[in-house]
Amino acid sequence: MIDEILNIINTCFLTTSASRPIAFYSHLIPVVLSTLLAFLVFIKSKRTLFSTIFLTFIFVFSLWLIGDLVIWTSDNYYLIYAFWAPLDYIEIVFYVLGLYFAIVFVKKSDISTWWKIVLFALTLPAFWLTISRQSVIGFNQPVCEAFNNDFLGQYKLALEGIILIFILIYAITPFFKKLPWKKKWPDLVVLGSMFLFLSSFGITEYLASITGYYEMNLYSLFLLPIFLVAIIYSVFELDIFNVHILGTHYLVVGLMVLMGGQLFFITDTTNRFLTILTIILITILSVILFRNLKRESDQRVQIAKLNIDLQNLIKQRESLVHLVTHKVKGSFTRSKYIFAGMLDGTFGEVSPALKKIAKQGLESDNAGIQTVDLVLNVSNMQTGTVKYEMKSIDLKELALKVIADKKVHAEEKNLKIEKDVKDDNYSIAGDVFWLKEVMSNLIDNSIKYTKEGKITVGLEKKPGKIIFSVKDTGLGITDEDKKNLFTEGGRGKDSVKINVDSTGYGLFSVKLIVDAHKGRVWGESEGPGKGSQFFVELPAV
Q1: Nearest to 97 by CA among 63, 143, 142, 135
Q2: CA 427 from centre of chain
Q3: Helices (DSSP H) in 384-470: which residue ranges?
């Protein structure tokens, strides 16, 4: 008779009718959002260990949410009893998986087989009680609730407490190490949010079981979005899974899910219609947005591919430059020793005419070797393999040495080389070898492109900087050629007529060296036939 009355007046419906909308909202939305995120991470990360653990954790927790939702919304006593029975076991499993997740997150590697066995063994008591149908020991039909096994409840409480202590230790350990905040922040966000959610979940579970007020569990699930937000932030901003996911897609879908969740609460027909219409409009706009994102994504992929191809071409070019220049330099070196042997008598007495040819050949080979070295140096400077030995040097002393070295060469062309160096302190931080190359290159250029007149080498001190200059009465520079100065392979049309061996790498190497010294270089000329002047500005010490 009582059973018939209870079937007519369904106590499950009566006791949970007010809480059902909240149950749907607090269970289904987290299931959809967390499962979508877990699968997205799992696929994008190419099934790594960390993403696999995360997916398994979310899957097991989603099973618990679905089972708990059935308990709160079903009118079938037998179905409620069937779903109530395994919930404690499922809860223990996702707590253990949470610990596994925390350990792997901190260690950045998997745990040993023995530790896996230990973690698995911790779930066995609950598993045995569940399959032997001892996890619940009865059912209180009037209030539509099952009686839990006391031992299982106490075991679950103790195990969850221990797991929470371990997670808390992992979360706060980085703060006792001398690590930058950037490395501490992910641990605090991920493990801190997990500890907050699991501890609040476990505490409310315990209080609900001893008070019988199970609605407490229902409201505790509203802390789940905090954990989800932290995980979403960790995935998209902290990139804890080392994947690049289109966060916009996930966030738009999440917005649609949240909008759909409003349907659990709305009872008015007009409001329900407007909500459905809003969801449809968001869906249409999302499709348009996703198409644009895909187009942009495809463009980024294409650009990345082109960048990779460009990098490969640069590497091939570098290898080719080094191969060719070494081969050419080897050929110059071998012929150089032949010419040198002819001049020093290694091959016996040679005629004056042959000596003259040998001298020209030796000079040509030396020039060729210098050109090869120049090209190699430029290539190494561009790739950053040249290391500058920066130390305090006297630029005046260096300039005077270079002027003295170049004086003979200038006089061979009947050119005067003068110096305009004022008395002052010319200390700078720089590399002696490479700054000497800069000075030598600029003076050599002036000698090459000046037929008559003089070359003036100047050194001047200004507030915070030192200026080295080379002025000549030579070829001059056209406005068109000025655009090509200091560029790779840049050569003037008239300069090539005078110096057929010009490579255009000389001034380019000067610019690379000066840039490395945080200075600047430029050239000035009033026009063709009116000479030119080059300046190098370097920071003073």
Answers
A1: 63
A2: 40
A3: 395-412, 432-448
Measured distance CA(422)–CA(95) in Å, rounded: 80
User: Which residue's entry shows tokens 């987290």?
Assistant: 30
SS3 of 503, please? coil
Q: Strand, helix or coil at 532?
A: strand
Kindly report whether the global pTM for this prediction surpasses the value 0.70: no
Helix (H, G, I), strand (E, B) or coil at 179: coil
Phi and psi angles of residue 141, each rounded to the nearest 5 degrees, phi first: -65, -40
Half-sphere exposure of 150 toward its Cβ, with a 13 Å CA cutoff? 0
Q: Which token pair is 143?
A: 């209030």
Please give, one letter per residue, the 3-state secondary structure of 80-98. HHHHHCCHHHHHHHHHHHH
Counted residue by residue, the chain has a size of 541
> Virtual CA dihedral for 232, 234, 238, 239, nearest 10 degrees?
-70
What SS3 class is residue 109? coil
Q: How far is residue 58's CA from residue 194's CA, in Å, rounded to a whole number?
A: 12
Looking from the CA of 202 toward its CB, the CA atoms found within 13 Å total 24
Positions of E strands within 444-531: 454-462, 465-472, 520-524
Distance between CA atoms of 3 and 142, rounded to whole angstroms? Answer: 10
Under 8 Å CB-to-CB from 155, ≥6 apart: which residues?
Answer: 125, 126
Q: What is the mean pLDDT of each run of 10 residues along the chain (541 residues)?
A: 50 72 78 79 79 89 90 86 91 92 86 92 94 88 82 91 90 74 74 83 79 71 66 61 54 56 58 62 62 65 66 61 58 70 72 74 66 62 73 90 88 88 87 87 89 90 90 87 75 50 72 88 87 90 80
Q: Which of 429, 373, 371, 420 is nearest to 399 (CA)?
A: 420
Q: How far apart are CA 505 and CA 491, in angstroms?
A: 9
Which structure tokens are listed for 32?
Answer: 């959809």
Neighbours of 402 (CB within 10 A): 20
Token pair of 496 as six digits = 């090539």
